[in-house]
Amino acid sequence: MPKVTIYDVAKRAGVSAATVSKVLNGTGRISPETSQRIRAAIEELRYRPNLIASALKKHQTFSVGLLVPDITNPFYAALARAVEDQALAHNYAVLICSTDNIAEREEKQLELFLRQRLDGLIVATSEAMGQEFFNTLHQSQVRVVFIDRVIPNVPYPVIATDHYLGSYLATEHLIELGHREIAIFLEPLTLRSSLERLRGFAKALEAHQIKFDDHLVFSEGFGVEAGYELAQRMLAQKGPQELPTAIFAATDQLAIGALQYFHEKGINVPDQISLIGYDDIQMAKMVSPPLTTVAQPITELGHQAFEVLLGTQALSATTTLLPPRVIIRSSTAAPLPQS
């Protein structure tokens, strides 16, 4: 069977090959009717454009890079999948690298990415990036979008969840249940995202005339292990009779680690202590009890980042904050009355 060409599509649609090319490349002003007719012809003939030849003409690789702190983190795995799905819909491949929040590793991964002559780069990584990282980006002239963490003075678009709002909503949910002694579990306070969540937490307390107590602020590393250790530290400091009635854990992984520790110690969630997480990773609904959490719009984050990256507009220093929402499950409840 002879290979279908762009000229076959043009003949079937009753247009020129140049018009078909404009529809394929998203250029020029083509009427919706003509565009629909061309796309119908493409489907009928099962035409597949030669992406390699097209890329050589435009110096494109149809590949983008994604830098994340840790692809084994369920949040970043879901974010990567959202970017990947959107890329696939546009016939792009995604190369993914983990940086472990280490500046030197970020710079090395960036150099490796740039050697691939990628069409763009999405950066969802740490705030430890040095000036060398940004100098390399600037010199490369590659299109770049930052995602997830708002970093000041970045001359590129930033798309992130409004973490201040998310933590405010999480804390307000606990307050509305009747809690007044609320602890917060955070990742390292060197991260702006942690500081934003702490700020939202403090503001919600202030709005409800609850005194902020820095003895109820616990900060550690990353992941489930860190949440376990924070719960262990809190119990060691407070004792079982002096525990707060609720905890806002600034990631679901921290919350799940705390939940595991409380289970081992026979501390019932939510009867003895309420627990709300942040992210809404898949595991949040599978633990026992299912975790109340703040859902980040992960799919929208990934989709928007890709669309902005490969858009036609020049990229500039803009910040887009997407609103999160509280997902109420079974790990939060009103505090038990004092005996």
TrEMBL record:
Keyword DNA damage: no
Pfam families, alphabetized: LacI (PF00356), Peripla_BP_3 (PF13377)
Keyword DNA-binding: yes
UniProt KW keywords: DNA-binding, Repressor, Transcription, Transcription regulation
Residues covered by the HTH cro/C1-type domain: 3-52
Record Gene3D superfamilies: 3.40.50.2300, lambda repressor-like DNA-binding domains
Database matches in SUPFAM superfamilies: lambda repressor-like DNA-binding domains, Periplasmic binding protein-like I
Molecular functions per Gene Ontology: DNA-binding transcription factor activity; transcription cis-regulatory region binding
HTH lacI-type domain location: 4-58
Cross-referenced PANTHER family: HTH-TYPE TRANSCRIPTIONAL REPRESSOR PURR-RELATED, LACI-RELATED TRANSCRIPTIONAL REPRESSOR
Stated name of the protein: Transcriptional regulator, LacI family
